[in-house]
Amino acid sequence: MAPAIPSRLLYIGGQWRAPDLGGQIAVINPATEDTIGYIPAATAADVDLAVKAAREAFTKDNGKYWARTTGKYRAKFLRAIAAEVTARKSELAELEAMDCGKPLDEAAWDMDDVAGCFDYYAGLAEGLDAKGHLSVELPMDTFKTNVLKEPIGVVGLITPWNYPLLMSTWKVAPALAAGCTAILKPSELASVTCLELASIAAKVGLPAGVLNVVTGLGKDAGAPLSKHPGVDKVAFTGSTATGKSIMGAAAEIIKPVTLELGGKSAIIVFDDVDIEKAVEWTMFGVFWTNGQICSATSRLLLQENIASVFLERLAEWTKTIKISNPLEPGCRLGPVVSEGQYKKVMKYISTAQEEGATLLCGGKRPEHLSKGYFVEPTVFANVRPSSQIWKEEVFGPVLAVRTFRTEEEAIKLANDSEYGLAGAVISTDEERCQRVAELLQAGIVWINCAQPTFTQAPWGGTKRSGFGRELGEWGLENYLSVKQVTKYISEEQWGWYPRPSKM
C-alpha cells in the first residue's frame, strides 16, 4: 500500500534534513492498523542542531532578524500561516483523522481553531508594540522607570497526540508572537500535521530558524530537548509522569517550565436539570475526542433522586453513538490512538469490573469493527471513591458514576482528587452553580456545559494537573520576560558618599 501521508524530513533552520541516524517511525492508522507512512526519528544530535538554529535566529543582527522586530512584522507571518491553514483545512483535517483517530468533523473543527489561534496571537503581537515601554509611577522624582516586555528566548515545545496540530499551535503561536524562536517536538504517535505546519511556515516565508520541528521518540528527542542548556524555557502538555521528568531536568539548570498535565475532572449534575440536556453534555464531556482529552469530565456525580432515570437515558443514548472509521460521515467516536493505549483502556475496564463497579454499557470492542483500536463508549455505575477507575486518568471513552445527596457532599467528592484541571456543574439554580464553581479546586469550570474552549480564555490546572496558563493574554505572557530599566534624571550629584577633600 502506498503511503497516504506526505513524506517529510526534520525541519531545522529553514531546511528539510534527514535525521542524524536516518531512523524512521511508522505512522499507524489507528482505525485500520495499517502503516500509512513514516516520520523521521530525531536523536539528541538533531535536537542540538535545531537548538543552534533557533539560537542563531534569536540573536541574529542583535535581534533585528526576529526577536526585536515589531509585533506588526511578526503578526504578518502569523496571519499568513492562519490563511494557509484555512486554505488547506480539508486536507489537514483528513491527515489528522488518519493519524490520531479523531472523527473528521472534530478534526475539521480543530483546523478552524488552529487558524483562529494564529490570527488571535497576531493581534496580540501587534498590541505588544504599544506596550513595549510601560512607565511606572515612582515615589522619587529623581528617577524614571520603564518596564520592558521581551521574548524569553529559545523555547522547547513538547506536545501531545490527542490534539496534534491544535495544541502545538497553542504554544507556537504565542511563542512566535512574543518574538521567541522555537523547537517543536510533537508526540511520535501523531506528528504528521505538525510537519505540515513546518511546510506552511516555509511556504509563507517565516525566517529560517524561527520555527524548527523535530519528530521522534520522547527518550531520543523530547528528553534531550527538555534538558538542553541552550533552551531558555520548556512548555509541555502531556502525562503527569513525563511532566515530572521535564520539571526535574529544568530544575537542574533553573529553567522555567509551563506544564499542562493530566486530569480526572468531575461533572456534578443536580436534580433540577433538564435530563436530556444534561445527559448530552455528560456524554460530550467524556466521549469527545474519543475520550482522550486531559480535561475529560470522566467522573459523574449524580444527585441520587434522579440517578435511575438519568442513567437509563444515558445508557440508551450512549449506545446510539456512531462508532466508525473517523473518515466516515457522521462518525462520533473513532479509535484510541494506538495499540498500547487500547490495551491500557481495556485493562482499566477489566479492573473496574473486578473492583465491583456496575457496567451499564460498553466495555468492549464494537462487534462490527474487527480491526482498529476501537473501544465502545463505556459507563460504570456504583464506582467506589477508592477504586482505580475513579482516581486515575484512563484517557479513553470511559465514565465512572457515583451518586450524592447534598451539595456539600458533591463538592467534597469532586475535590477529592490529586488532579485539578477542570470541573463542571449542571443545574438551573444559578446561585448554586456560582457557589459550586467557586469551590471546585480546578483551573477551569464549566456551568451547564462541558469542554467548550476558547482561544481568548486561560487554560490550565492546579494540583498535579500542572501550572501556568495557556491561551488568551496569559498564553502570551508565558513567552515574555519582564525587564526593569531605571534612569537617574536629576542633574544633582547623588551625594551618598562625602567628597574627598582636595589636596
From TrEMBL:
Cross-referenced Gene3D superfamilies: Aldehyde Dehydrogenase, Chain A, domain 1, Aldehyde Dehydrogenase, Chain A, domain 2
Keyword Glycoprotein recorded: no
Stored InterPro entries: Ald_DH/histidinol_DH, Ald_DH_C, Ald_DH_CS_CYS, Ald_DH_CS_GLU, Ald_DH_N, Aldehyde_DH_dom
Pfam families the UniProt entry points to: Aldedh
The keyword Transferase appears for this protein: no
Active site positions: 260
Annotated PROSITE patterns: ALDEHYDE_DEHYDR_CYS, ALDEHYDE_DEHYDR_GLU
Domain of life of the organism encoding this protein: Eukaryota
Biological or metabolic pathway of the protein: Amine and polyamine biosynthesis; betaine biosynthesis via choline pathway; betaine from betaine aldehyde: step 1/1
Keywords: NAD, Oxidoreductase
UniProt record similarity statement: Belongs to the aldehyde dehydrogenase family.
Protein name: Aldehyde dehydrogenase domain-containing protein
Taxonomic placement: Eukaryota, Viridiplantae, Streptophyta, Embryophyta, Tracheophyta
